[in-house]
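Incident log, structure service

09:12 report received: a user says their structure output differs between two submissions of the same chain.
09:20 pulled the input from the user's history:
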Amino acid sequence: MKRDFEEVQIPVIPASYHEGLIVDANYTFMPVATYSENAVGLAEYITENHQGDNVPQVAFFIHPSAFGRGPLEDTQKAIAEGMKIDIVEVVEHGTDLDNTAMLQRLVSKGVQYVICQTVQTPVATMLTDSQRLGVTAGSFGEKGKLTFLGAHYTGGSDLIALAGTATEGYIWADSYNLTSENNEGAKKQLELAERYGRDEKAANSHNYGAGILAAQIATEAIKMAKDADLKVTRENLYKMMQKMNFNSFVAAGPVTYSETERIGVDVQNIYVAKDGVFKKVQSFESQYIRKVRAGR
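09:34 re-ran on a clean worker, output below:
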């Protein structure tokens, strides 16, 4: 549909954060950091926190589609730009209900880190199998064990609901403020959920936060047009989008666009699952993704 948006010249806020949606496109405005930004950022996190003299040995566990392959390709480009990790194996998951052989193979190859770029269900199955086999790392990068990391759709309260204690220690990159942070933004999200009768699962999901942000961006563009005494048209909303700069209580950082910038929130949070919730350990912006984009 990207070509259709360009043809009719209408600004669009996508629900998918696939990097390809903003490549050679003018009218798609990405709300938050892309899946590629998440994956490359996680690889950077590995290099910054890995202990030992060896280059980190990494496997990718990805969705069998462009949604999964795109972030892998961009991580490979980051490696070509100088990022120090080795991608030992890439697993495109199917519908397997048992990952025993795959997990044992990764351990035998010396893999210490597994970056996931898919959705929660296959990740939950893998984490549960890893816990059963006793190969989940008890500390970051533990030798002979596997440290699991994942991008946007591989984590959150939905993953914990599926995998329970098997998520302990799972590291996750996301651009949304979680309700488990119990800060002012979290309280506002829960208040909104209560006002509109959302159940507990929806209220605490980062997917609910994603919906709120999309609505906020669209509403902000309309308000900006009205404040400028402009009619609410495709053309005027497009102009307003390129001047946008505001703070959202559901986002990890400010939402900013310009004539050349098509990603609203560049900040990512790194969360770690502990005692049944994800808690933030740091906020950052990927440096290598900039080099990857500059090389396109």
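09:41 both user submissions now match this output. Likely a transient worker issue. Closing.
09:42 reviewer note: DSSP finds eleven helices and eleven strands in the chain. The radius of gyration is 20 Å.
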